[in-house]
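seq:
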Amino acid sequence: MKSLQINSLLVFVLVAFNFVSAQTVIPGNVSTSCGVELNKLILTPEYSNCASFLKLLPLQNASDPKPVLDGYCNAPKCSDSTTNTSATEVKSLCQRELNTSNPQGPDPQIMALKDILIFNAPIVQSLCFKNSSGGYCYTDSDSSQIFGYLSGLDSSSPPRDITCSSCNKAIVNTFVNFYKAHPESTADLPQNTQGSINNFETMVTQRCGQDFLDGKIPNGNSSQKGSGISMHSPSGFTMFTNTIFVALLVLLISHFI
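struct:
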């Protein structure tokens, strides 16, 4: 399974952690205004209570990841108002980092952070969809690639094929429905993703039929109060990545408390 989604968050945490440890105003090459916004984002109270990445903190000491991920998926969704406000502030205060005309290109971690906020609703739904065996759809490599592409977190390799599973139908329709309800959001996707969404939809319908993109989420893919998880290695969230990711978060938060 591709792990860019987690890696993007991991690097963001590393940047913020270095900022706190060094007691500097600007973490790395991030502008002052963007550094202030990152600090504000980490300290936003709602993100400690809603289904945000902070809910994955207990994975550090968990012998069984199931209760932790169930807790994440059963937590209330972060409000659209909060995530939209944060996304607007990131776009305003991190303009230098998001500028696509920069010689070195936009900062990939700030871009990922912006996308995570803008596409919060379909991201949370898709991460918590479950398959017929009770495992999380996202742990499947095929579903993970589709998720990364449609969320804008991994636009480097658009899916060339798709398994016509209920998991993939749930994820694809969740994002396509969101795009239709929020057409302005597609402007925030990477340019190569914007230009190939229609091609992706054509490929999906050719492979799986017109009904696959009917806007419906299959029964049994509920993201609420699911039981069980398929946790494999190297697919899924590897425990090694989880340990590093969560340990850094614990250190980061302990500096703010």
